[in-house]
């Protein structure tokens, strides 16, 4: 059975460990700007939410890529083939949650690839706000509900 990345915003303590471990794993430096996850703080609501690629079942980013550089890997991770990518950034616009960014330093796109099947953000999250779990119907339903909450919060993206 496949696994999915699960986000529990109510558990996030805003420590930003996920950003640090992601950037270190990707670039061997602690630089949140080079991370594929961002923790957004909502001061009015007194919450923090880790935002990252949710590895969509039917990814918009993959549909708009003019050169087919975005593909689904064997572990269901949606990944960017850097050899094919031309840097047009259409995928950034297509992502409904804004989970793809561009690094001017690397001159390439930054997107979660599930660390090859062992997401370090989930492994090191001290509060359990990010978990990598078996894709059960209950987990998929929870993931769908969280996505709907984000959609309601940010408005529908077309």
Automatic annotation (TrEMBL):
Annotated TM spans: none
Keywords (A to Z) from UniProt: 4Fe-4S, Electron transport, Iron, Iron-sulfur, Metal-binding, Transport
InterPro entries: 4Fe4S_Fe-S-bd (IPR017896), 4Fe4S_Fe_S_CS (IPR017900), RnfB_subfamily (IPR050294)
One Pfam family here: Fer4_11
Residue ranges annotated for the 4Fe-4S ferredoxin-type domain, each copy included: 3-33, 44-75, 76-105, 106-135
Protein name as annotated: 4Fe-4S dicluster domain-containing protein
Source organism per UniProt: Lutispora saccharofermentans
Lineage of origin: Bacteria, Bacillati, Bacillota, Clostridia, Lutisporales
């Amino acid at each position: 059975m496949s696994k999915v990345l699960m986000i529990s915003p109510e558990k996030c303590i805003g420590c930003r460990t996920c950003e640090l471990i992601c950037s270190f794993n990707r670039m061997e430096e602690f630089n949140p700007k080079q991370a594929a996850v961002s923790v957004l703080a909502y001061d009015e609501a007194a919450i923090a939410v880790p935002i990252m690629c949710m590895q969509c079942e039917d990814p918009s980013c993959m549909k708009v890529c003019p050169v087919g550089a975005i593909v689904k890997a064997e572990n269901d991770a949606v990944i960017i083939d850097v050899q094919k990518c031309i840097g047009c950034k259409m995928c950034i616009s297509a992502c409904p949650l804004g989970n793809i960014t561009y690094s001017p330093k690397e001159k390439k796109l930054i997107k979660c690839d599930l660390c090859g099947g062992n997401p370090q953000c989930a492994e090191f999250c001290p509060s359990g706000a990010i978990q990598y779990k078996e894709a059960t119907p209950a987990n998929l339903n929870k993931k769908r509900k969280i996505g709907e909450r984000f959609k309601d919060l940010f408005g529908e993206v077309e």
